[in-house]
Amino acid sequence: MKKNHIQHGNYTKISGFRQVVLSLDYGIRIGPNEPVRLLDAVLEELDYTKLLHLYSSKGRKSLVPPSILFKIYVYAMTEGIVSVRKIAEQCTKNIHYMWLLQGYPAPSHMVFHRFFKRLTTEVLQDLLTQLIETLSQVDSINFSEVFIDGTKWEAYANKYSFVWKKAIVKHAAKLPDKLKELQRKVAMELQQDEVTLLTDDELLVCLETEITKQQIQFVYGSGKLKHTLQRLFEECAAIRNKRIEYDEKLQLLGTRNSYSKTDPDATFMRLKEDHMLNGQLKPAYNVQLAVHSEYIVGVGVFPNPTDTKTLIPFMKQLESQYKQKFQYVVADAGYDSNENLSWLLARDYKTCIKPSNYERSKTKRYREDIGRADNMTYDEMNDTFTCAKGRKLYFERIRRSKSKTGFVYESRVYRCERCNYCGLRSRCQKTYYGMLPKSNKALYISTNYQAMLDKNNDTFNSPLGILLRMNRSIQVEGVFGVLKEDMMYKRLRHRGKDTVKKDLLLMAFSFNLMKLHNRIQKGRLGQRLFEIKTAA
């Protein structure tokens, strides 16, 4: 080994003579049970026409076909590799990646970066649909039930970059008074009363015209006296800019109460992972997953902190994604609402949703609450309730209400004949600021909602419902456990709702293919649900 050869940085000159070996196919060195073989075989069945349409037919073609880049990207995620630089590095060192390349040269990290940026959620959802249809031919996917659950995932945004809707509305309400005071000053300066009717844009043009007419030069810096018109012009420009800023922020907020400056699509929510133990709000997304037969069949990203308002749009997405509808919708108590049950039953879905008061109804405090309709005696013939004091609550009227989402529902109002001199009134009626209400006790009963709840509870408490409830906690919550703990996906890696959804869809591909591999190796193909284990 010579010193001058080392200094050149070319290590081929310092190695000894080696026998020239003809390279063979990398697949010979890959074991027959490796997941990469299954991944290549399954993804080869998909139709990549929509993916190819993302690339222009004119000009220079991609060095590596997009279908191969897609396979490599998904396989890297199965191994926990998400950095495009590390994926490009694996293409030069790992024979599994070299085998997937099929003889094409190893792409750089920019090729994978441009590939991810070019992808769309529509294309990925179409490929996911094809994957589920392909898996239905070899496994127990029959669309009999779907398990739905959500989690609040911390966004890739700064923690203290919040914008609050209440603060914006508060400051925006002060602008008309500031503009009115400015109009008064301008009217006094120009001796023109008509300027009090101008908007901030018109007033700014008026001041600019007057400044040009008087040939006033703007001055800045310490020790320089500004002209009165310059001060008024700057004050008007500040008011106008603030109005535009507040309008843009309110447009970004929409129906939300907050957003992050570094990720405007993220909303501030209270997360379970509270590192500072002070209930601090953090920018996050509400990620919804639909799982069937242990496979992820749908991914949804929403700005709502609660799950109630996400069920209907998520189910609409699943309906547009698959030709076949699921029979049973299984979810936890966060999805129980009058609107959700009405929508599902109107579309012939069977529900197995945990009632929102299921856990509370089993407590002693709930059973002894004499103010609840469930703890009163109902006379169906006379349509009256009897309270703990023995007094009657008669039907009064039908009240029509409208939710924030626009859902209209009816409630039957029952009111007590008299609550005066009742020793149980403090336990029956809620106090407001320490004072009992002046009106008599009233009950608001939604008969339609109660009928839907009874139908849902029949399934929920049946042997099939118990089996579905158990599998919901295993399958869909197990998916979140694998993604967050096993794959270490505890915080989102991208900014923007669409980009976040693309990353989660790619993660769904990797999860489903590894799940198929594990089910094949453990001989669990065809097993859709986990059976309840009985004590010996």
Would you kindly provide a written description of the structure presented here, covering whatever features stand out?
By secondary structure, the protein is α+β, with helices and mostly antiparallel strands. It contains 19 helices and 13 strands. It has helices at residues 3-7, 35-43, 49-52, 66-78, 84-93, 95-101, 109-118, 121-135, 165-172, 175-190, 200-214, 228-253, 311-321, 338-346, 364-367, 425-428, 447-460, 463-486, 497-521, and strands at 145-154, 162-164, 258-260, 267-270, 281-292, 295-302, 328-331, 350-353, 377-379, 384-386, 392-402, 408-416, 442-445. The strands form three sheets. Strands 1, 4, 5, 6, 7 and 8 form a six-stranded mixed sheet that branches. Strands 9-10-11-12-13 form a five-stranded antiparallel sheet. A hairpin with a 5-residue loop joins strand 11 (392-402) and strand 12. Helix 11 runs antiparallel to helix 12 and helix 14 (338-346) packs across helix 17. The longest helix is centred in the middle third of the chain and has 26 residues, at 228-253. The radius of gyration is 33 Å and the shape is flat.
